[in-house]
Hints:
Blueprint: H1 4-17, H2 20-31, H3 36-48, E1 52-55, H4 62-71, E2 77-81, H5 88-92, E3 93-98, E4 103-108, E5 115-119, H6 126-138, E6 140-143, E7 146-149, E8 155-160, H7 173-176, E9 181-184, H8 190-201, H9 215-227, H10 232-246, E10 260-262, H11 266-282, H12 290-301, E11 306-307, H13 309-313, H14 318-328
Parallel strand pairs: 1-8, 1-9, 2-5, 5-8
Antiparallel strand pairs: 3-4, 6-7, 10-11
Amino acid sequence: METATDIRALNEKIEKESAFIELINREMDKAIIGQRYMLDRMLIALLSNGHILLEGVPGLAKTLAIKSLASTVEANFSRIQFTPDLLPADLVGTQIYQVKKDAFTVRKGPIFANFVLADEINRAPAKVQSALLEGMQEKQVTIGDETFPLPNPFLVLATQNPVEQEGTYPLPEAQVDRFMLKVVLDYPKKEEEKLIIRQNIAVETPPTPQIVLKPDDILKARNTVREVYMDEKIEQYIIDIVFATRNPEEYGMPQFKELISFGGSPRASINLALASKAYAFIKRRGYVIPEDVRAICIDVLRHRIGLTYEAEAENITTENIIDELLNRVEVP
Length: 332
């Protein structure tokens, strides 16, 4: 059991070590107006060693946000535009025959970077998506008969456009589950959009984000995030939330029994716990409170709950189910 003194000391340590969050936010604000929700989720994925899927209509600064975050870290960044004619070799690399050497050499693909922007990921066919899958899960890539480790840190930030369905390949459940968070973006507020217009029609070029972190700083911060204190009651709260997606009738929600085809896996519980710790960290706190779990819950679970045809016919979304679930599950 952690004593009050230990938690106080941990709180002071995390408040000190999370100071770089303010620096990143300041740099990101140079390029992005508003979208604080998205920026916080990107930081949570980065600090939790997870991947993030951003869904929103074109023009909401998804790509710009990812590039801006990458530019605040002294790390390699690559952007891959997913298209229907993309091949796995275009992503991971291939073997090239060298005539002079009479041997094959490996040419590594754009996946070998610290930050990989997979733009419009649902436009590439399944074989390309599965090539990305090994990199996301195993942090390694196989080219020919050789396996190569990917750089550390390694973060996939994928975007998809929910409006256009023609010529797209919906991500299968197994792959969507590999993303720690799925964030659905909304339009900016009126005042924010006014500032966006001003910034983009101004004579002078807007300032670009500067480097404030090194990859080693991220790896160190990830270890610190895992030190954030989580009480056993919070752990039980997370378990109850995930189990309520599997057996809603046990939590007083029998109406959802026929609407949910499958609930969250143990990966959902792990990611919810890790994301809650990272959320507490970016709020510069050394311990997790129930509000941290509730704040990040929808982004962790929205792509991990399967809906039946009945739910779709009644226009019930995973967000509706999660909202009701958070109202019903007892808060510690």
